[in-house]
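In the laboratory, one determines a bound structure by crystallizing the protein with its ligand and collecting diffraction data. In a computational setting the workflow is compressed into a single prediction: the sequence and the ligand go in, and a structural description comes out. We illustrate the idea with heme C.
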Amino acid sequence: MVDCIGNLISVSLAMKVKLFAMGVAVAMSAGFAATAFAQAKPDVLVKQRQSAMTLIGKYWGPMAGMASGKVPFNGQVVVRNAGYLEVLAQMPWDGFDAGTKAEKSRGLPAIWSDAGKFTESQDAFRSAAAALAAASRGGDEGTMKTAIGNVGKTCGGCHDNFRAK
Ligand code: HEC
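The predicted complex, in structure-token form:
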């Protein structure tokens, strides 16, 4: 009987410990979730989207040079840079949150007043970047250069309407 109660107590203790651990785990994951979804401050969002654009420019530059003949063609570099660009092409856009309207940046008001067109311009860039990545894996120089040119049109197309000079 005493043994029995002893067992009961130790079981309930073990359960309490377990429940407590579960509670901590739930509280922690809720904390992580809150961190993951918490909106960054407007100035940070601007910095992040500009950083993504800066990297887009970094990996884009050599390919533009190759397409225009200013830089010797190197298929390996195109494969690498096009792969990076395809991923980078997804990154800047959530930084154009309405909360950043008042921040100093080169983003024009049309980003918000003509949001549909801005989204279309993003889509055009993303598909051109994906097509370039696919072309680079195909290995044909001419096809790659054409695909590079197509990406370039989407950069300019968006900057003309949505980026201050
Ligand atoms: C859908 C629109 C859009 C597309 C497509 C786009 N950009 Fe941009 N880009 C912007 C906007 C808007 C800014 C200004 C961002 C700011 O100041 O917050 C910008 C800024 C930049 C900057 C300056 C970053 C800085 O330091 O502030 C570079 C470099 C750049 N873009 C390169 C490119 C290149 C290269 C491509 C194509 C390979 C490209 N962008 C495609 C909209 C676009």
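The mean pLDDT is 87. Keep in mind that any predicted model is a hypothesis to be tested, not a measurement.
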